[in-house]
Amino acid sequence: MRRKRIAGIARDTLNFILEASRSTAPSEFAGLLQADGEIITEVLILPGTESSRMSALVRLYMLPNMQVAGSVHSHPSGALRPSEPDLLFFSRTGDYHIIVGPPFDEQSWVCYNASGVRRDLPILDVKFDDDDFDDDLD
Ligand SMILES: [Zn+2]
User: Fold this and answer.
1) Measured between alpha carbons, how far is 77 from 30 in angstroms, rounded to an integer?
2) Ligand 1: distance of its center to the CA of 66 in Å?
3) What's the pLDDT score for residue 80?
4) Which of 67, 79, 120, 121 is most buried, judging by how many CB atoms fall within 10 Å of its CB?
5) Domains along the chain with CATH numbers
6) What element of type H or E holds 34?
7) Which of 134, 119, 130 is nearest to 8 (CA)?
8) Ligand 1 being an ion, which residues bring their Cβ within 5 A of it?
9) Per-residue 3-state assignment (H helix, E strand, C coil) for 42-72
């Protein structure tokens, strides 16, 4: 899978993730991140438990032409460190992996790379067009 450069995540997308994680707790929220150009703008939601995540991922992986920037899931317990299964999952699904915990606000998440090392993921204010905003961002 191609690893593309990512500039950040759209604020609306992060807010969606935080909201979904909050409303899913105490169950886990999980999804795959997709980028439009260099910005993560899409979340493909996976069924929400640690045990089912891998099989759901495998099914999504089979979709043609699917490019995944990374993943997101919540740890309703609040520990934001990746587990061993998380690290295995990270190594297969792109290079930007968000773990969200309570209180599910803009400070309560961490991004890791495919090896489980913390990395920065800037929050970007992006205007969404209905059709396609390509790379012409302000
Ligand atoms: Zn986890």
Assistant:
1) 14
2) 23
3) 95
4) 121
5) 8-118 (3.40.140.10)
6) strand 30-36
7) 119
8) 83, 86
9) EEEEECCCHHHHHHHHHHHHCCCCCCCCEEE
Q: Which two tokens stand for residue 35?
A: 């980028």
**Rounded Cα gap, residues 48 and 37, in angstroms:** 27
How many Å lie between the centroid of ligand 1 and the Cα of residue 132?
32
132 or 70, which is more confident? 70
121: tokens are 């993921």
Instruction: Look at residue 93 in the predicted model and tell me its pLDDT.
Output: 84
Catalytic residues: 28
Query: How many angstroms does the Cα of residue 61 sit away from the middle of ligand 1?
Result: 19
pLDDT in tens, 28-59: 888 999 999 999 999 988 776 666 676 766 66
Output the CA 134–ligand 1 centroid distance in Å: 32
